[in-house]
Amino acid sequence: MTAQLAKHQKTRIKTDTEIFFHVMLEMVELCFRSTAEIATLCFCTDDKTRVPLGEKNGYINASYITMKVGEEEHFYIITQGPLPSTMADFWQMVWESESDLIAMMTKEVELGQVQCHRYWPEPPHDTIDLANFHLRLDNYQIVEYFIIRIIEMINNHLQFTTWPDHNTPKLAEQLVKFICYMRKVHSTGPIVAHCSTGIGRSGILLCIEVLLSYIEKDLCFSIKQIVRDLRNQRFGMIQTKVSSQYSIRL
């Protein structure tokens, strides 16, 4: 592995930034190949990590996730995609957690199936009024494989758009670049991540973000242990063979 990376660096990579990025991709691809071996490990009861809502500790299908990388801790909230009946609760959770970034790992509709209710403002009607919140779309930008939305309450919204629900992205590079941008704009509170179910793609996102942190810090890691730690904090995380395979291929 080391010899292959060294050869690749000499022939194809010019700058230090390119070297680092390419090594990350190679390492993530190696990890994806090994997670295919992960079967059922261990699952938690969600109550100890569930996100309480409001003063009465109301229920929302969301879990706190804490992942330690060396001496550093990464904090997330992972949740299912909002429904029409849970959209207000979702935004209340974002507000109470003081999160400034939402990572949406699904489209609204995929293969003819609704995956997530549209819970953000869109042109031409750039505002949404909820019971306790008023949302306004400040700006948005469509890039190659994700959409950036700046939503006032104030919140950054990143939507990864190239991941069909029953398949995986062809290029690990896309998700790595998404995560790099996600880190760039995130500054406060836990990252709120969701897909459709709140256990598949969003679990992969967290797994890869943690994995990249290990690589950046030049620390040893076990992909099985990362998945085990995620599953200990939310039931069913990275539940399918396809998800497990992608977790290593990246």
Automatic annotation (TrEMBL):
Predominant subcellular localization, coarse grouping: nucleus
Cell location: Nucleus
Keyword Ligase: no
Domain Tyrosine-protein phosphatase: 43-250
Pfam families, A to Z: Y_phosphatase (PF00102)
Keyword Membrane: no
GO cellular component: nucleus
Gene3D superfamilies named in the record: Protein tyrosine phosphatase superfamily (3.90.190.10)
Residue span(s) of domain Tyrosine specific protein phosphatases: 173-245
Keyword vocabulary terms for this entry: Nucleus
Record GO terms (molecular function): protein tyrosine phosphatase activity
Domain of life of the native organism: Eukaryota
Protein name stated in the entry: Protein tyrosine phosphatase non-receptor type 20
